[in-house]
Design a protein that fits this description.
Radius of gyration: 17 Å
Bound molecules: NADP nicotinamide-adenine-dinucleotide phosphate
Distance between the termini: 43 Å
Oligomer: single chain
CATH architecture: 3-Layer(aba) Sandwich
CATH topology: Rossmann fold
Strand content: 15-25%
Structural class: alpha/beta
Number of domains: 1
Length: 239
């Protein structure tokens, strides 16, 4: 039977590349994000194996409705890729507390809402795979990444705890932690001076979203008896 994956944050960057890759690999893919116009365009390009649902991951009801729409369109949800995220970096002394709250809402609560929405059916079927996108910022913090790193450390903690809990339910959990990828993520930085400084400071070549999509495909092509726990994937030039 054709397997079905939900990809959050599919309207750009890594999520869009993952959706493309999974359709090419024979999956049905339900794409989610807030910008429905972008999802509609990608769905039209990808054909009948792709569908989309406009959802804000900060709203738990949106995630429940997303899973219901996926099951209605394709029968069931086999894979959830919790990819939606934002990265408004700033030093904590700048006290951009709205950015702090926003990151926690999208990067942590959004992941939890996705897990909550798919777990019942995966546990009942004793089959499923949840892939959470963290970051190398979830392995160590820098002076401007304290809160972003906290959210991505959090995603790794959630993933590791859930993976261990789910061993009795045959549900696999994987965390993918990328380094720099060429996407729109820096657009979420609200401190424009910091953004400019960051861009002139980061001189190595970034990865492309397709590199992360290939890592996700590797995770999913393993036999049912194999659970890839974590993949850390960086540009060669990133220290
Ligand atoms: N790029 C990197 O260097 C890098 C490195 C490590 C980890 N990551 C992680 O990779 C993931 C994808 O990021 P990206 O680099 O592909 O950035 P991106 O191009 O900015 O994509 C982010 C995606 O998240 C979605 N999103 C943001 N807020 C949302 C919300 N409230 N509800 C639903 N969707 C939301 C956006 O869609 P809408 O705006 O349409 O809702 C967009 O599709 C993130 O979790 C990021 O932290 C990226």
């Amino acid at each position: 039977m054709t397997r079905t994956a939900i990809v959050t944050g599919a309207s750009s960057g890594i999520g869009g590349a993952v959706a493309r890759k999974l359709v090419a690999d024979g999956y049905n893919v339900m794409m989610a994000a807030r910008r429905a116009d972008r999802l509609e365009a990608l769905a039209a390009e990808l054909g009948d194996s792709a569908a989309y649902y406009a959802a804000d991951v900060t709203n738990p009801d949106d995630l429940k409705a997303l899973v219901a729409a996926t099951d209605a369109a394709f029968g069931q949800t086999d894979v959830l890729i919790n990819n939606a995220g934002i990265m408004p970096l700033s030093p904590m002394s700048g006290r951009r507390t709205e950015d702090w709250d926003h990151m926690i809402d999208v990067n942590v609560r959004g992941v939890l809402h996705g897990i909550d929405a798919v777990l019942p059916q995966m546990m009942e079927r004793k089959d499923g795979h949840i892939i959470n996108i963290s970051s190398v910022a979830g392995l160590s913090a820098t002076p401007i990444s304290a809160v972003y790193s906290a959210t991505k450390f959090g995603v790794r903690a959630i993933s590791d705890g859930l993976r261990q809990e789910m061993t009795n339910h045959n549900v696999r959990v994987t965390v993918v932690s990328p380094g720099g990828v060429n996407t729109e993520l820096a657009d979420s930085i609200t401190d424009q001076n910091l953004r400019a400084a960051l861009e002139s400071h980061l001189t190595f070549d970034f990865m492309e979203p397709e590199n992360i999509a290939d890592a996700v495909a590797y995770v999913l092509e393993q036999p049912a008896s194999v659970c890839v726990g974590e993949i850390v994937i960086r540009p060669t030039g990133q220290a």
